[in-house]
Amino acid sequence: MVKVRIILVSLVLIGSLIVILQNTQVVDTRLLFMTISMPRALLLIITFVAGFVTGTLFGSGFLKRSGKQSAKDKG
Predict the structure, then answer these.
(1) Which of 17, 27, 43, 69 is most exposed, with the fewest beta carbons within 10 Å of its own?
(2) pLDDT tens per residue, range 8-44
(3) How far from 72 is each of 57, 61, 63, 64, 66, CA to CA, in Å?
(4) What band does 1 get if pLDDT is binned at 50, 70 and 90?
(5) Distance CA 37, CA 28 (A)
(6) Alpha-carbon span 40 to 24, nearest angstrom
């Protein structure tokens, strides 16, 4: 099971790296009141990292723990 997980993670990382390296054009990104010019690859990396961090927080039970604390406060 561990080998399958390592293979799947490796395939996702390799696929992500291929997509990132093929998208090097500069794009304008609007963020609230600013417009930022950056390579599309950097934007993809930032998005990938943000998704990874979000998934890790949800997967670790971050929201479950905070929900249990608020339930104890109510009861």
Answers:
(1) 69
(2) 989 988 998 888 788 889 999 888 889 999 998 888 8
(3) 21, 17, 14, 12, 10
(4) confident
(5) 4
(6) 5
Rg for the chain, CA atoms, rounded: 18
How far apart are alpha carbons 60 and 5 in whole angstroms?
17
- Round to whole Å and give the CA distance between 42 and 24: 8
Q: Which residues neighbour 4 within 8 Å (Cβ) at sequence distance 6 or greater?
A: none
**Angle, helices 40-59/62-74, rounded to nearest 10 degrees:** 50
Contacts with 41 (C-beta within 8 Å, 6 or more apart), sequence order: 20, 21, 23, 24
- 42: phi > 0 → left, psi -120 to 50 → alpha, else beta; which? alpha
The answer to whether residues 14 and 30 touch, using CB atoms and an 8 Å cutoff, is no
